[in-house]
Design brief:
The chain contains seven helices and no strands. By secondary structure, the chain is mainly alpha-helical.
């Protein structure tokens, strides 16, 4: 292999190892499979899928709803084990309700955009950018905004 191909392989292995996280139990290359140059075909696609799956697992463990699911799962499993047909009927009703009511159509794209604009710092950023682009505003406004506190005077 050429030097560029070696660097590419090392870079891919480092990215896969970073996606998997620490304590994976794999070697420094991040793979338990043999190198394809030595006769056994490596499955890079599987390594990438495992890395993405590990990343998704870590994201889910940090999600606020994870605790709720952890608490509710044993209760739901016991109830489903006792009443499987009731569960299937309930799931069918929920699915039919979603199809009929289409809750995703209740929220318009404009409403979502306005909610994002109101809740974030985006308007302030947009105003700042507009002011910096305007030649008249650049001449009229000082470089640093005035302080709300009066300047301190040293005692004589």
């Amino acid at each position: 292999m050429s030097a560029a191909a070696d660097r590419l392989a090392a870079s891919r292995a480092a990215i896969a190892a970073a996606l998997r996280g620490p304590g994976d139990g794999r070697g420094p290359s991040g793979s338990t499979r043999e190198d394809p140059a030595h006769g056994s075909p490596a499955q890079d696609g599987d390594d990438q899928q495992e890395g993405v799956a590990a990343w998704l697992r870590r994201r889910w463990e940090d999600h606020p709803a994870h605790l709720l699911v952890e608490i509710a799962s044993p209760l739901a499993q016991r109830w489903v084990a006792r009443h499987p047909l009731t569960f299937v009927g309930f799931a069918a009703c929920v699915g039919a309700g979603l199809v009929l009511w289409r809750p995703w159509r209740l929220v318009s794209a404009t409403g979502l955009l306005l909610a994002v604009l109101r809740s974030s710092r985006l308007p302030g950023l947009a105003l700042m950018l507009l002011r910096s682009r305007s030649p008249r505003a650049a001449r009229a406004s000082p470089v640093h905004p005035p302080s709300p506190h009066p300047p301190r005077r040293s005692p004589p």
